[in-house]
Design goal:
alpha+beta; Jelly Rolls; eight-stranded antiparallel sheet; four-stranded antiparallel sheet; 9 helices; 12 strands; about 25% strand; disordered C terminus; binds 2-oxoglutaric acid; binds fe (ii) ion
């Protein structure tokens, strides 16, 4: 595997401009629009104090079936780019539904709450430019305990450092604007992240691609999947926390 000077693990995130050309993005957008003509996309809406979770989604199984160009990016070019920046290989998630998504956020209506992702690395490709809608992140902010991401002690520690005054003192907030063809990679299980409101009148459309060590299982998967991909009542108050 090619190695690069850059260490995604250490920096927590990396931005690569023009990863896709404008033409490639236009083509992907037209495929997505065609898919939407034949399918009603669910709106995921989980209201809460502060930024809620509200967006439309095409999930990984639908992508594998109907949007092969995006599936190929997931298992090809983006995976290779992530491995290169990280210095060791990751794999697409065994949970295909969660592994790759198209997220659609409507101006003024949608929002994406503060959270960590369950997977080690998340890559984002912006397909269009919008007013607002910046991804906000605190690179490598989380203190991950050896016991694992789902231990009770980890949850308590996370709650403490998520508090605004603590974030203000110890965190450094980075804002990445949506730009056509821009790729962002982040250690998403360590970067506390969210999306600012989409302004103007254009919908924000991007692709979210997640990777982890081969064979990684996620204990919270079932509740988290129904929270993120269905309109069912959430079974737990906060499953989207890692
Ligand atoms: O759209 C973004 O900028 C981030 C979305 C995100 O964090 C996610 O889908 O987990
Ligand atoms: Fe995320």
């Amino acid at each position: 595997m090619a190695t690069s000077e850059f260490d995604l693990n250490k920096a927590g995130y990396q931005v690569v401009d023009d990863f896709l050309t404008e033409e490639q993005c236009r083509l992907l957008l037209s495929k997505i629009n065609k898919y939407r003509e034949g399918h009603i996309l669910p709106e995921i809406h989980r209201p809460m104090a502060g930024r809620s979770l509200r967006y439309h989604v095409i999930h990984g199984e639908q992508i594998r079936e109907s949007l092969p160009e995006i599936w190929e990016l997931y298992t090809g070019r983006v995976q290779q780019r992530v491995d290169r920046s990280l210095g060791f290989p990751l794999a697409p998630l065994e949970n295909t539904r969660a592994g790759v998504n198209v997220n659609l956020m409507r101006p003024k209506q949608s929002s994406y709450r503060w959270h960590y992702d369950r997977a080690c690395v998340t890559a984002i490709i912006y397909l269009n430019e919008v007013e607002g809608g910046q991804t906000e992140l605190y690179p490598n902010y989380r203190m991950l305990l050896r016991k694992g991401k789902n231990s009770a002690v980890q949850r308590t520690l996370d709650r403490i450092i998520q508090a605004k005054p603590i974030l203000g003192i110890f965190g450094t907030k980075v804002r990445v604007s949506p730009k056509v063809g821009r790729l962002v990679m982040m250690r998403a299980d360590r970067c506390w992240h969210s999306v600012r409101s989409v302004l103007g009148d254009r919908e924000r459309i991007n692709i979210i691609l997640s990777y982890d060590l081969p064979g990684t299982e996620f204990p919270t998967a079932e509740g988290l999947d129904s929270y993120l991909y269905t309109q069912e009542e959430a079974r737990s108050s906060d499953p989207n926390y890692s």
